[in-house]
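Deliverable D2.4 — example input (structure tokens):
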């Protein structure tokens, strides 16, 4: 196996077909995809210059790809810190364990000669986490769906969490029903999703500003180009069925919105917002439980709730999980 760090933008573009033939476990495949990484490199150059660390066999066929960015004298995961988890992408026919070790050896070499390597938010149990000595990283709780709890006559908002939490959500939903027609819809068409996400980002900023918490958002979320980046990446991923926006509507008005990525049997809740004027009805949590019920009916067995250990995630029945870091 031979490794190489590709830095030429045209060579990186030429590798896109080979890149598409690799994959990573879970939502790491979203945040290491060409749709996500190339959009980040183009829309948000402050996140770093494009790099691809590749592994080839003796016939020069690409067996693995690790998208990186060069930033401030360090190599970091491409798109970081906007991606929730990362990992090495490996061709389906390749043996991932020896390739992971080879990629790690290459990273250690670059760390000695070209600067630091700071790979954060790696998938627990992924190829890189198995190949390296890692340290615990950011919490990223998940919610495992149990089909046995899904009685066909049970209202979907009763799923998950403590009995007290379920009673509270039931009460909020009934109160909301008295105000008008409550519906949930999904935006999945790529062009419609692009336009909806382009509105969703400023809606989210407005809601945080209204609650006096805008300063708590990461800098990337407030970047002037973030809306276009996320809308473009979401639309590109929607072409492959990997992205959609769920909305809780009251008489057609969006009270809560949640952007999801879907890979296999898992959904990742990437970002959500709600109308602060309706906060007493818990619209974001109502949408989460409604979306979870729909996902279960569609064969999804896990909802990943993204980075952060906010208490509401555990109130709704999430279990703890930690991502991993590699610092060389």
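Example output (designed residues):
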């Amino acid at each position: 196996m031979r490794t190489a760090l590709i830095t030429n933008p045209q060579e990186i573009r030429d590798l896109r077909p080979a890149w598409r033939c690799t994959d990573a476990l879970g939502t790491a495949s979203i945040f290491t995809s060409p749709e996500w990484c190339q959009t980040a490199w183009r829309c948000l150059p402050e996140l770093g210059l494009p790099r691809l660390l590749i592994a080839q066999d003796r016939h020069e066929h690409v067996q693995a790809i690790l998208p990186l960015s060069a930033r401030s004298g360090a190599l970091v995961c491409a798109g970081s810190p906007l991606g929730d988890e990362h990992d090495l992408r490996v061709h389906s026919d390749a043996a991932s364990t020896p390739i992971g070790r080879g990629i790690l050896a290459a990273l250690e070499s670059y760390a000695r000669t070209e600067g630091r390597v700071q790979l954060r938010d790696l998938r627990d149990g992924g190829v890189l986490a198995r190949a390296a000595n890692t340290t615990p990283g950011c919490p990223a709780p998940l919610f495992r769906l149990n089909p046995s709890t899904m009685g066909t006559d049970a209202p979907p908002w009763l799923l998950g969490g403590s009995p007290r939490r379920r009673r509270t959500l039931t009460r909020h939903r009934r109160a909301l029903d008295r105000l008008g027609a409550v519906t949930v819809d999904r935006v999945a068409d790529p062009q419609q999703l692009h336009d909806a996400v382009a509105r969703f980002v400023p809606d989210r900023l407005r809601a945080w500003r209204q609650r006096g918490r805008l300063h708590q958002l990461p800098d990337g979320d407030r970047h002037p180009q973030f809306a276009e980046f996320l809308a473009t990446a979401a639309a590109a991923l929607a072409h492959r069925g990997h992205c959609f926006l769920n909305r809780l509507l009251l008489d057609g008005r969006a009270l809560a919105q949640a952007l999801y990525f879907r890979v296999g049997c898992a959904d990742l809740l990437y970002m959500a917002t709600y109308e602060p004027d309706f906060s007493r009805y818990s619209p974001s949590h109502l949408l989460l439980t409604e979306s979870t019920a729909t996902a279960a009916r569609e064969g999804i067995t896990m909802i990943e709730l993204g980075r952060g250990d906010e208490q509401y995630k555990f109130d709704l029945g999430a279990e703890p999980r930690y991502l991993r870091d590699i610092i060389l």
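The mean pLDDT is 92.
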